[in-house]
Amino acid sequence: EAEKLNKMSSLLERLHAKFNQNRPWTETMKLVRQVMEKRVVMNSGGHQHLVSCLETLQKALKVSSLPAMTDRLESIARQNGLGSHLSANGTECYITSDMFYVEVQLDPTGLLCDVKVAHHGENPVSCPELVQHLREKNFDEFSKHLRGLVNLYKLPGDNKLKTKMYLALQSLELDLSKMAGMYWQATNANPLDKILHGSVGYLTPRSGGLLMNLKYYVSPYDLFEEGTGAPIVLHENNVPRALGMNVSVTVEGTMAMYKLPIAPLIMGSHPVDSKGTPSFSSITSANSVDLPACFFLKFPRPIPVSRAFIQKLQGCTG
Question: Which residues in the chain are classed under CATH 3.30.160?
C-alpha cells in the first residue's frame, strides 16, 4: 500500500507540473478532492478505490496535452505568417492561407489522429510525413513544411492566376510520375537502375511542403553509411530523399510569358519503346495557357556545369 501511495504522490507532482500554466493549483486540488471525497479505510475495497483514483488522475494528465498541442500549432502558424483556428470542441486545428490549409486532427486527450493538406479547390489529403513529424514532436520539420507550402505560392498575380500556375505544376508532376511508371513497366528496374538510367531518375512525389524530388545520381561511396561503413541496401521503401544528387521540380514567376500545360500531355498508358519512352500530345490552346511563370529544376546547392553542356541543354529546351 505504501508503494501505491508513493505512486499517487508522484502522479500529483506530475499533475501540478502539467497544469501549473494552464490551471491554478487550487483547481487541481479541487479535482483531487472530488476524486477522494469518499474516505475509504485501507482494506481490499480501499485498494480498488485507490487504483480507480490513480486511473482518474492519469486521464487528467493526458487531457492536459490537448491545449498544449493546439497552442503550439497556433504559434507555429503565426511564425510562418499563416492564420489558424480551432474547431468547436478543440480537436481540429486549421492552419490556413488563401491558397491552402493544413488540418491537424487530435483526439480529446491530445493524441494525433491525422494531418491533411488541402490546396485551393481540392479535397484535403492525408500527409504521412507531417503525421510522423508531429507524432515525434519534431515541430521544426513541421514548420519547414509550412514554409515550403507558403513558398510554393510566392507567384505573381491574384489567387486565380496562382491557381492556374499550381495546375500547371500539377500537370507536369502527373506526366513525370507517368514517365517514371512507364520506365519501370518497360524495364522492371530496381531503385539503383532507376536512379542511374531512368528517364526521370528515381521520383519521389511532392508531399506537404516538400517539392517533387528527382534523384539522378548516386556514387558508390554514397551507398555506405557514414561512420559505420555499413552498406545501404536500396529498395522501394528505403531510398532516402537526401541520398546522392537531386533536383526539385517547381514552378516560379518570370518576367516573360510562357505557354504552360494545365493538363497532362502524355497520351496512353504504354511506352512506345523498350526504354519506357512515352508519347506526348502537342501543346495547344485547349490544354495550356500563357502564364508569367516557367517550370524549374532546383538544385539544393550550386553545381558547376561546363559551357558546352549548358549549350546542349539549351538546344534541347530552346
Answer: 60-153
- Rounded CA-CA distance 6/61 in Å is 17
Task: Tell me the C-alpha distance between 225 and 219, whole Å.
Answer: 13
Query: From first to last of its 318 residues, what are the pLDDT tens digits of the chain?
Result: 666 666 666 766 666 665 555 555 566 666 666 666 655 444 556 677 777 777 776 665 554 568 888 899 999 999 999 999 999 888 999 999 999 999 999 988 888 999 999 998 889 999 999 999 999 999 999 999 999 999 999 999 999 999 999 999 999 999 999 999 999 999 999 999 999 999 999 999 999 999 999 999 999 999 998 889 899 989 988 899 999 999 999 999 999 999 999 999 999 888 888 888 999 999 999 999 999 999 999 999 998 999 999 999 899 887
Exposure on the CB side of residue 67, measured as CA atoms within 13 A:
9
| Amino acid, single-letter form, for residue 279 | S
Please state the pTM of the whole predicted model. 0.76
Do the Cβ atoms of 253 and 293 come closer than 8 Å?
A: yes
Task: Give the 3-state secondary structure of residue 277.
Answer: coil
Q: What's the rounded Cα separation, in Å, for the pair 121 and 160?
A: 11
Exposure of 135 by Cβ count < 10 A (0-12 exposed, 13-18 middle, 19+ buried)?
exposed
Q: Domain 60-153, CATH 3.30.160 — does that match?
A: yes
Specify whether the CB–CB gap between 185 and 274 falls below 8 A.
Answer: no
